[in-house]
Structures are given as C-alpha cells and as structure tokens.
Amino acid sequence: MSSMQLFLFLIIPTAILGMFAQAKVQGAYKKWSRVGSRSRITGREAAAYVMQKAGVTDVEITSTRGHLTDHYDPTHKRLVLSEENYRGSSLAALGVAAHEAGHAIQHATGYSMLKFRMSLVPITMFASKLLPFVIIGGFFFGMLGLIKLGVLVYLVLTVFQLVTLPVEFDASRRAKVELVATGILQNDEMVGVNKTLDAAALTYVAAFVSSLANLLYLFALSRD
Asked: Domain residues of the chain, as ranges?
C-alpha cells in the first residue's frame, strides 16, 4: 500500500471522526446549556456538594475564562470551571461540574488509572513539544530519522490517550451517580447530563483513534 493510500485509509477518516466528535459535543452542550435544572444549583455548588459527599474538602474551586475550559488540576488540587459552568445552573453546567468533581474524587481515593496518567504527563508534554518538528521534518522533507522519531512521539501520545479513556469514563460515571444520589438532579433530568457527558466522551475516543492512526501511519512509512 502506498503512502498516499495509507494516508487516505488511516488519517482522513480519523480527521472526520474528530470533527464529528467536536461538533457533537458542541451541539449537545449548546442544547442542554439552555435547559435549567429544577434545583437552580450552580455548577460551583454542584461540584462542592459532590466532593463533600465523598469526603473531599481540600480542593479549591475557581472559575476561568473560555468555552469548555473546565478541568481538574491534581498538582494544585484545584477544580477549574469555565465561567458559564461556574455560575450556570443548566443541566450541561451541572454535568460538566460534577464530571470535574469526579476527577477530584479519583485523586483523593488514589484511583490507579489517574495516578498512571499523572505519571505520564512529563514525557507526554515533552513528546508534544517535539511533534511540530516531527511533522515538518518527516512529512515535508522526508527525513527518515524524524519519521522514526515520530513513531516514538506518537507511541507516547497514544499510550497517554489510551490511559485517558478509563479516567474520563470513570469521572463521568461518578458524576451521573452522584448528581442523583445528592438530590441535585432528578432521574428525569439526567438525559441532559447523559447527552452532554457522552458527547464529551466521544472526543476522547476520537483523540485516541487519531493518535493511533498517526502512529500506524508513521510506523508504516518508517518501514519503507
């Protein structure tokens, strides 16, 4: 199979999957951010309640600018919510906030896959910094050495993305359970949370598939 055929077979479909996943999560978030919860609890309050129920009381909750910039920082024990989710009380906002609280609970309970992912962060960051050089050198100048380096870079990225999957899926599972268990949401309101978090999960699957496809593509080129 030629390099062009490999590109069309591996890279193009995964790029389409990535665009589809992004469109799906944006669409789901937009739809369910317009539907308010009956409790009118904000995302910040929901995250605090979920963590408090799990016995996590040493995590700071802050807000940040940007759209869907929500994340949990295990290094500083800080749960960061985008302003729309920090102050919002929509089903989407509560779902995202509870998901990030799920990561804080993972950290507090020593969830093994989160610990593994954290251990991979330094080498993954280093690999990410090398990626532009690999792409420019490997694809545009045909430098075989950089293609081989690209295999190593994408191997690291693929392993990181693979480990990310159970971490994200587990955080969403915890969020869905705790939102009902704490009484923040009723069962019939969970459809909005499920749709939002399931769409977000697809983006992580797409990221893994894309990284794996690039790894296989570069590995095939390095063998020529």
From this structure: 3-223
